[in-house]
């Protein structure tokens, strides 16, 4: 249908082929061209859009987009895409404890502002230079510091959201009397509070049980985080965090901040095949020494890195002699025993260099006392940075540099508790090996959160079959170990069809009811979180160039 946004809209409306093409992709396997991209200037513009879409219910919808780095198809739509980068990009207030910001601010810019006050929002992603804080809230993103500091959900203390009636509402944690007052209101806001509270009461046990038994989860709506029974508080921000723009449009975020530790040392463990049986025990042993982060990458990542070395070389500083010196322990080790199967990086932080070094060395001694594993403690930050570069840049370098094949994130973010890894990983690898795919594994081993990214030719005839079969089998396995199908990348188009692998039909029913309460006419970001569209795997896949 012809889209005619009302004249009162102050921002821009762009239906040009070039813009629609630019907004047709995120970093998932999907490509869906929107009919129109709009650049609203303020909340009144959002009101105008919402009321326009209501007049064309069933035909039009609004999908929010910030930086578009989502790996799940979250910001893709064939209808109207609403850009938050262009005008919703101001940091409004910062001090050492909290920051108030609009959603379209890049994390890298937000970080500069908070660092002026000696503070950070610590759930930053490996894509921290590319993504916005709004995308992080909508996906409930996480990253290398989440082992210690948790996910974005922990830092959202208030949100302003424009709901389906076109008005902006503020959400924050309420105590019992504040909640009762809200419920008394004879308007849409009052109805929202009444219905969500009733829903949680009616399905209390099922919702409590539904929280995946892992430290990170972005699957479903986080109903289990809304009502804190012990404190009797009620926090609707937790429902919007991770909801991928399916319940409303976020216009302002208040983040609480933390003070980072300034000194660190990294303990690097180079694991061989023979160590895999003990992986869970090794991980738990190191976790006992409380590293701030605990990350990993595998031999295939290492191999791809070697292939793209000229680019990586530049990012690592570009000095061949210094690089050879920095990597000398690893070069020696590879010459002696080949490329390690898995590299584990445990970073210990403290108030002084000496304390950080002591913490890393104590953990190293404990590991070497029990296992015959090559280890290394970095001497300074520059040395640790080379490992961080490989870990952080792995997905980006893969996307940019592997010819004729594409990164295909579809089983890219599963989580199982570390104690299950010795059983889970061999079962997982056995399934993967049947498909003879080239893939890399990197991740947050401390949380049991693995990013498995196959490299695939999107035009191969069995592409869709492989994705369907593998997702089904792998997510069944994740369900068996009570894990989550997504720790941080969220459900989007790719995983919404698999939510039933980890949630009961009663819990899926509560998700559907949440969508009914906030978006009964399906005007916000359709087919993510509820109403799955598995058929898009056939019709909306990027063409292999
Ligand atoms: C190289 C690379 C590495 C990555 N590493 C990580 C990682 O370590 N951890 C991690 O968690 N993720 C990672 N990601 C995924 C992605 O970067 C994050 O999910 C990121 O937070 C998305 O932010 P964005 O600004 O790009 O959001 P977008 O992609 O624009 O949007 C993400 C979702 O949020 C919704 N949304 C956006 N703005 C709003 C709004 N104002 N109101 C309501 N909904 C909104 C969109 O509809 C969409 O569903 C990585 C991606 C890449 C490409």
Describe this structure in words.
The protein is an alpha+beta fold and 545 residues long. The chain is built from 21 helices and 19 strands. A hairpin with a 4-residue loop joins strand 9 (227-228) and strand 10. The longest helix is centred in the C-terminal third of the chain and has 21 residues, at 381-401. The protein binds flavin-adenine dinucleotide. Flavin-adenine dinucleotide binds next to strand 3, helix 4, strand 11 and helix 16.
Count of runs of 4 or more consecutive helical residues: 21
- Specify the helix fraction band: 25-40%
Span between termini = 30 Å
Bound molecules: flavin-adenine dinucleotide
Return residue spans where pLDDT drops below 50 for at least 5 consecutive residues: none
Give me the Rg, rounded.
23 Å
Q: Shape, please?
A: globular
- Proportion of residues in extended strands: 15-25%
Largest sheet: 8 strands, antiparallel
Mean pLDDT: 92
- Strand elements, count: 19
Structural class: alpha+beta
Question: What's the topology here?
Answer:
Blueprint: E1 12-14, H1 17-22, E2 36-39, H2 43-55, E3 62-65, E4 80-83, E5 91-94, E6 98-101, H3 107-115, H4 133-139, H5 146-149, E7 156-162, E8 168-174, H6 176-184, H7 188-202, H8 204-210, E9 227-228, E10 233-235, H9 237-240, E11 249-256, E12 263-271, H10 279-287, E13 293-298, H11 299-307, H12 309-315, H13 320-326, H14 328-337, E14 342-350, H15 353-370, E15 374-377, H16 381-401, E16 406-407, E17 411-415, H17 421-434, E18 438-444, E19 449-456, H18 463-480, H19 492-495, H20 505-518, H21 536-539
Bound molecules: flavin-adenine dinucleotide.
Flavin-adenine dinucleotide binds at residues 26-27, 63-71, 74-75, 84, 103, 125-127, 131-132, 134-136, 138-139, 141-143, 244-245, 249-250, 395-396, 488-489, 525.
